[in-house]
Amino acid sequence: MRIAAIELGMLRVPLKTPFRTALRTVEAIEDVVVLLRTDDGRTGHGSAPATAAITGDTHASIVEAIAGHIGPRLIGRPVDELNRNCALVQGALAGNPSAKAAVDIALHDAWAQLHGAPLYRLLGGGEPVLRTDTTLGLDTVEAMVARAVAAVEQGYDALKIKVGRDTGTDLERVRAIHAAVGGRARLRLDANQGWSARQAVRTMRTLEDAGILPELLEQPVAAADIDGLAHVSAHIHTPVMADESVFGPAQAVELIRRRAADIVNIKLMKAGGIHQAARIVDIAAVHGVRCMIGCMVESAIGAGAAAHLAVSRADTLVQADLDGPSLARANPVAGGVAFDGPRIVLADAPGLGIEAIDGLQPLPR
Questions:
Q1: Of 16, 100, 162, 270, which is the active-site residue?
Q2: 162 belongs to the catalytic site
Q3: Cβ–Cβ under 8 Å, residues 238 and 208
Q4: Is residue 263 within 8 Å of 269, Cβ to Cβ?
Q5: Which CATH number describes the domain made up of 3-116?
Q6: Kindly report the CA angle at 87 between 274 and 306, in degrees rounded to 5?
Q7: Following CA atoms 99, 100, 101, 103 in sequence, which dihedral angle do they give, to the nearest 10 degrees?
Q8: What is the pLDDT of residues 73-119, one digit of tens each?
Q9: Those residues with Cβ within 8 angstroms of residue 219's Cβ, 6 or more apart along the chain or in another chain
Q10: Treating both helix axes as pointing N-terminal to C-terminal, what angle do 274-286 and 300-312 enclose, rounded to 10 degrees?
Q11: pTM passes above 0.90
């Protein structure tokens, strides 16, 4: 079984409401989809959204990286040589982690189909069920409280609250949400690099002194400010999670060496796919560092692949933030991973189990 062709498509699904963070506003899932065709008629699926403010990837750069650099290296390659194929993806060009992730996911899907088993089983096995939090994007205090209450009523027991623009308003948001759902849901704060180290410490101490104890604080400072991240970690009680500060294994090693964070958020789109993400998880496991599996605002293709990795490394990937597909008005992916509110269930079909993608528009070759 060899790789015969790599085709690309565009998938667009409007969100229920605009998704706002300290870095950007998103109104729709817009994924470049990879269809990896094999010479025996199978298709491996992968995908990547454009997250220029985070990874530097745009739709145009994803398409060019795959069509012009990554794809040509893989045509004719045996599907069963997964490690070598993944190495070819990573070495095709510098940067472009989301483009690499899309192809890497498709390679893993085809490889698992070849072996006739769900991907998570081949990655290590596990219980094919997860629970995810849901994210409350930046909005008015009243709107965020209403969404928090609605989420709890839908069964979510963990809420990620976006903060990071104005500390005064951030405190107001968190206090109001805590008053509305405290005791019924764990609160996770995500500043998306929006605070300075001093602001982060002052804001979190204010909350902690008031008896508001979030489960974690995610990426309070700029991605490159590892000293600032370490300072925050050392001066607040709330566990600190690194997100944009860790893309690959080398950054994970340095972060752990400097004890700059308590938790690492791993996303396939940052890491360059499953292969690299698994390496980060395994590094963290050796050092006893907990991890979260996260995703971008993306479809059930990429988020589903992340779920397969999470199940296979459940001892280290102890938290999940895979709500991307649930933010959309509909799920266009038939088969594969089922995203049902806070509950995520993996299919027992080979590979990712994807059967069809509604509304996929082919991109010209």
A1: 162
A2: yes
A3: yes
A4: no
A5: 3.30.390.10
A6: 5
A7: 90
A8: 999 999 999 999 999 999 999 999 999 999 999 999 999 999 999 99
A9: 190, 191, 192, 193, 229, 241, 242, 243, 244, 245, 265
A10: 30
A11: yes
Q: Which CATH superfamily is domain 121-356 in?
A: Enolase-like C-terminal domain (3.20.20.120)
135 is in an annotated binding site: yes
Half-sphere exposure of 325 (CA within 13 A, CB side): 26
Phi, psi of 341, deg, nearest 5? 60, -130
DSSP element (H, E) containing 143: helix 141-153
Residues spanned by CATH 3.20.20.120 within the chain? Answer: 121-356
Residue 40, annotated as binding a ligand: no
Q: Which helix (H) or strand (E) holds 5?
A: strand 3-20
- The verdict on whether residue 291 carries a ligand-binding annotation is no
> Does 16 count as an annotated binding residue?
no
Q: Is 270 a catalytic residue?
A: no
Catalytic, out of 16, 100, 267, 270: 267
Cα of 203 vs its chain's centroid, Å: 26
CB 6 within 8 A of CB 45: no
- The verdict on whether residue 170 carries a ligand-binding annotation is no
